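Job type: complex structure
Entries:
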Amino acid sequence: MMKKKQTKSAPCCPPAEPMPPVPKSLDKANAQLAALAKAIAHPARVAILRMLVRREGCIVGDIVDELPLAQSTVSQHLKQLKDAGLIRGEVEGPRVCYCVEPGAVALLKALVNGL
Amino acid sequence: MMKKKQTKSAPCCPPAEPMPPVPKSLDKANAQLAALAKAIAHPARVAILRMLVRREGCIVGDIVDELPLAQSTVSQHLKQLKDAGLIRGEVEGPRVCYCVEPGAVALLKALVNGL
DNA sequence: CCCACCAATCGTCTATCGACGATAAACGTT
DNA sequence: AACGTTTATCGTCGATAGACGATTGGTGGG
């Protein structure tokens, strides 16, 4: 019989996209930056992103109990980050493994540094 | 009698704060980054910020007719940027002169690059 | 002194965010 | 097949964002 939590940090996160193209059009770049900024425009999402960057191995519900938020709320934040392309989720058995999309983070940095 | 617009780019923006301290606490840093990100989480605000960075001289209502938005809407966006500390407004006669707060932008870059 | 101009504020409206509990969906295990 | 575990989704609620028109507030010019 299992205990409680199975904090198994599986070795997921396989491909890792190279790096989304930096938009040539100014308007496109502005929209891109705005979208990425909105994705990290909440402390919890910043915390999640940082958490995923630190542990290159992915995590799942570990995130939930590192944050003072309900599971459903964390799931929504994860969805926003995923929709923005900053992270990627992968079903790993019963759990889901999230990991950073390094290219997207690089794009964010490039866009911010290009201000 | 004057023509229409007086696109006078006056030499405002005097002191320029050095650079706000990068928060030591993780939570503080997350909150800081989230707040700054929220400030640029809209294409119009990114456009405004970029516009102000390019022309180190400040501008005012020039911003309004570079954007497809009503004057009041632009004013609100400016307020958000100002509240976030990213820009500074200074009454220059009848017009108001906005300019970038370089330290805040530097802080934003530092926080993003520190992800 | 009044007027024109520029910017900020107010009031309103709709849409989205953020949070939660409850429920559903997927999977491994027994 | 039924169960428990894990995550996503739904429904709700209050709060906030985003947009606009209209109004107010300053300031310089007549």
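Summary: Residues 1-10 of chain B have pLDDT under 50 and may be disordered. The first strand of chain B starts at residue 87 and ends at 92.
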